[in-house]
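Onboarding guide, step 5: your first structure request.
Type a short instruction followed by the sequence, for example:

Predict the 3D structure of this protein.
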Amino acid sequence: MFGQSVVDRSQEVQRGGHRVPYVNGATVAAIQTTFNRARLSHQGWEARQPQGRIDPRRVWRNTARGDVDIFRERRNPSPTKLDVHLMVDASGSMYGPRSCRAQDMAATLIEAFARISTVRVHVWQHNASGGVANIYRCYAPGSSAKGMNEMLNNIGGGNADGFALEAIGAKVVSDLRPDTLGLIIVISDGLPSVNGVGATGDIKDHSVLVTQNLKRKGVEVLGVAIAGDQRAHEYMYGAGHSVSFSGDWAALSREFAAIFGKFLRKGR
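The system replies with structure tokens like these:
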């Protein structure tokens, strides 16, 4: 779907126009491995049930003692059904390499879930002008790569992460189903800079409030700090819910797989 080889540096720092994003294969593999381990883990199951799926670890009980409680059932919805929304910062400070890294991260996540039919991925960009968050849809399940290839054309304006999160989060909540886990991944280079309509107090605290409200409604928020302050991301989206990415794909693979695995385990 997207470019698989390392792109030329001059292409990485272009400010607009058509750019096919780079997909990092190691990060794709790390995310898929984390997902499969969570799906196959015994931790999400209730053992010794009278009906359900046969539990291979309990079959001996029927053979040796005639017990019939050799089945298992999931305690909570399976983590294999995910509705993932990537929320990408398109403010002016993202010009150049940062916007390219964000585009590459989004394309890599799409590729990681491309062969898993129970995961739906959506990609949004946002910036702000006049106190209003502007939101652009770049990719939806089943759509072409055209919107992803044109992401650099949307860069400009201010950063209103919290207000974009509020708008996109409302859509995720409305579309959520009982057997599906909701996840928003904020890909941004730093602190909000625009005090949007409806804000009270510090705009960082507004982001905290939005994040907490979404969690209460069953939607988790993770952050990817693009060459930015990871501590600020952890303040807004929760400690241990953020990773930093300045171009080191090996570190990103490890760290993102870790927080993604934590999300899947918590979701059960």
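Each response can be followed by summary notes, for example: The chain has a mean pLDDT of 83.
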